[in-house]
Design goal:
heterodimer; A: 111 residues; mainly beta; B: seven-stranded mixed sheet; four-stranded antiparallel sheet; 11 strands; 0% helix
Amino acid sequence: SQKIEQNSEALNIQEGKTATLTCNYTNYSPAYLQWYRQDPGRGPVFLLLIRENEKEKRKERLKVTFDTTLKQSLFHITASQPADSATYLCALSNPGTALIFGKGTTLSVSS
Amino acid sequence: DADVTQTPRNRITKTGKRIMLECSQTKGHDRMYWYRQDPGLGLRLIYYSFDVKDINKGEISDGYSVSRQAQAKFSLSLESAIPNQTALYFCATSDLSGAGYTFGSGTRLTVV
């Protein structure tokens, strides 16, 4: 069955450093990979989408890479701030299917 | 007003009761989804609908049913609630591309 693994449940870093979160998947060939942010008790918020034919996508301090050979995506937050502390979810889909989500990585940025 | 509105926000119900969770969206999108979230298990897909006449089961549909009353409305029912259905339930919507879901604020359901 399809499986998505976000390699750590929790990541703690210092303010100003780059946070790198990993998403690996098996038994799946997604056309799209998406990243969401979720704050406690709230719904996920869409951040970025990357397609299978794209290697990298950037948005402000965020960067996502997608390696379909390794079946892996990396999500980077540069110059991290305490306000970036949240849970980050990786999600995959193909046209005509609904998103399936990983369990998330909780990022804590300390000042 | 929020793009996706879920009601109620919180609900406590007894085992065996029927309960309906409601979702409405103002995005004008055709696609709507129901997920549940449990600690340590992430978001799991219950049902999804790509248009008013389309209903599809997700990963964990047993014990649930849905109704797509209109493009903007998608409700989730628990026919006979059981304690292991205690969870945070999210409704979401997307356009035809499926790029970037918009989620509601969630319904926290407790079955006692």
